[in-house]
Structures are given as structure tokens and as C-alpha cells.
# Entry
Amino acid sequence: MRNSKPKKVTAFAPATVANVGCGFDVLGFAIHGMGDRVTATRSENAGVRINSIEGDEGRLPRDPEKNTAGLSALGLLKKMGLTNEIGIDLSIEKNMPLGSGLGSSAASSVAAVVAINCLLGSPFSKEELLPFSVEGEIAASGTAHADNVAAALFGGFILVKEHQPPDVISLKTPKKLHCTIIHPDIEIQTSSSRKILKKEVLLEKAVKQWGNVGSMIVGLYTNDYELIGKSIHDEIIEPVRSLLIPGFAEMKLAALEAGALGCSISGSGPSLFALSKSRKIAMDVGMQMGLALDKIDLKYSMHVSKLNTRGAYCEGLD
Ligand code: HSE
# Structure
């Protein structure tokens, strides 16, 4: 626990890939070099305010009761019984596109609670901060899925054992793993891409899926990169959601032919992720996936990096 209480703290939280193919709502990992920043400043006026949001083109709600970061912040203050006693102004810097499938709302809500926690002298552990961010995610998508927020908070690979209350296990993250992200220039809201999913699953598909979740975890713990790749397989969610992503099949094929271990939809899409064993392969994979989108004239952005294993943190405090 930290004793000093600064007046202003900025926290960073990384972008994340949820589901990882086989683990709808239960698996996720954090990406290096992409994420949101939130600055929390003490104010004389009680309550939470969102003073500014950069990078959202004015599209996100400024009302803290309607904003994922604001709701998470309010939840934290309520838990401490400080809602009417402490004033906090939030400035949010969004560095990833909205509706991209890269955990944009999760990154902001995690950065907000991490910044406020530091501002208040770190009364909560990261584990204790998780439920506040999950509350924010309910506002964003209508459901309490913790895969993005847990990966953003803790970094590395995570497994969500339970969502309400959240019970999350941090998994091993093999060092050589590199992630390629291709973000086609379209937007998909998590809430709408959840609505199109079937509520019932064939037993034989469920059996395959839990086999792959298990083998993914074995692959992570034994540094078995090929097994990790083989486990990125999804016959339940991907066939439905991929219909919303132009060029999906071509991009996936291009990624695998270029040497990716595996490739699927990042979270609720439209971004795709591919995992590779080296930066060079991950770059080649991205180039080939991009070519597939060039053929259909769809603009995209690409990100290649290692995985983030640090998670969210307050800047300048260590
Ligand atoms: N697991 C969630 C989903 C993540 O796939 O809907 C949303 O980014």
C-alpha cells in the first residue's frame, strides 16, 4: 500500500484480445503498445466528472453515469463510501478506434479505476478493482463479461472462471508470442454482435470447444506454440460473427499461409488477431492479411507487437 496521495495521476491500460478463438468470454490477452490513458485529478467539488475525452470524435457520453470509465469510477467511490465526499475529474485519452474489438471500453474503465486507486493511496489490490471495471463493461455491452477488463488490468493471458462476481486466473504467457492485429475500417458494436449469437450450442461443438480451451492452457504452460495455434479454433462464435467482417475468410487463410500459429476474430470484431512465434513472421502475416483487404478495397490498420504482460499501471509513480 502506498501512503502518499498525489493530486493528479495518469494510468495506462492496454488494448486486449478477448475470446482467443476457442474461449468465448473466458480467455483474453493484452497487447503491447496500444491502449488508453486516463488522468484522475482531485477536485474540491464532490462527485465524478468527465472533463474531457480525446480521440472519440465527440461520440462517447460525457455523463459519468453513462460512460464506462465514469461508472467504474462511481462504483469505486461508492464502495469506499466516498461518493459525496471526494471530487474527481477524469480526462480520457482514447488511442484505439471505437467498436474495433480491441477492448476500447475496457481499457478506459480499467485505466480510470487504476488512476483513482493511485490517487487515493492504493486502498485496493488489482483483484479488488476488477468488479468496478466489470460494472463499466455492463454499461458498454449490456453483459458482465470480464475477459477484456481482466486482461487489461492484469496483462498477459487470463482465464475468467466466473463472471459475477468475477473470478479470474492469470495464465502463463510464452515469451516468443507475437500478435498481429488487422483492424478493417468498419465498426461493430459488441452489443449487436452478441445479439446475433445463438443461445444454444450443439453438444458436439461444445465438446470441441472445451477441448480447445484445455489444450490452449496446456500450450501456454508448456511453451508449445504449435498446440497454442491448433487450439485457436472456434466452430460456435466465429462462423456467425465472421459474416459481419468483409474478407474474413481470405484474411484468415492468408495469415495461416504466412506462418501464423492461429488466427481468429478479436473479441466481437471487426479486428482479427493472429499469433506467431516471431516478430518477423507476425509482420509477414500482417502484410498478407492486409493484401487480402486491398483486394476488396477495404482500408485497415495493422499493429504488430509482443503481448503486454504488465497490465494497467499508474505512470510516474514507480
Ligand atoms: N467476449 C466478448 C464478446 C468480448 O465476444 O462479446 C467483447 O469484446
About this structure: The chain is about 35% helix and 25% strand. Residues 97 and 104 are 7 Å apart (CA to CA). The two ends are 13 Å apart (CA to CA).
